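REQUEST FORM: STRUCTURE PREDICTION
Request ID: SP-0412
Submitted by: Lab K.M.
Chain count: 1
Length (residues): 234
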Amino acid sequence: MPQPLTVAVAQPPCTPCDVAANARAHAAAVRAAGARVVVFPEMSLTGYEFDAPPVAAGDPRLAPLVEACAATGSIALAGAPIAAADGGTHIAMLAIDARGAAVAYRKVWLGGSEPARFVAGAAPAVLEVDGWRLGLAICKDTGVPRHAVDTAALGIDAYVAGVLELEEDAAIPEERARRIAAEHGVWVAIASFAGPTGEGYERSAGGSGIWAPDGRAVARCGREPGAWAGATLG
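STATUS: Completed
RESULT:
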């Protein structure tokens, strides 16, 4: 087994479509958490705003977050819309560290009205950090058993997701986390959006958490924006 890995899940406050402000909020969470990997919710850099322009990996507005990762040795997994090769837009997860940002994953299973605005990603993805293989997911992916099966088939130690749920659906991420942990014997880390955002999410769930392979919750946030929680995986 690799050495233990420190992971945090964070739910920073979000300003709609303001990448610069949101990057600063992400940077503050990274500095506070001091974890090797800090996971953020779905579309955390823009909010769940369907009219938000795509964010490029080299966007200079991400500089405060790059600087925070350099100072702490962290990798931030942040949510954003990104440009697709065919001219459309993906819902994606960016991996940001001291060197800058790169696209780590594109959401495979789109939900609700997303297919009218976004393009689905082609396949599951794994990010390797210090010998740990992290399977990546975004929101509806976590509710499709095939996604976890296909991701686990790549060989993973943890399943890491950014999600957005309504307040009344706050129990859903934990139910999914426990199922995935039990079925695949892996750690699960879910960062869940907190506070208001677009497309009718005036009251989102928060409640980010980390679950051990036996399904135990080892770290949890409340529902308030700005909260984070961390654990050591090992």
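NOTES: The CA atoms of residues 28 and 68 lie 8 Å apart.
Reviewed by: T.R.
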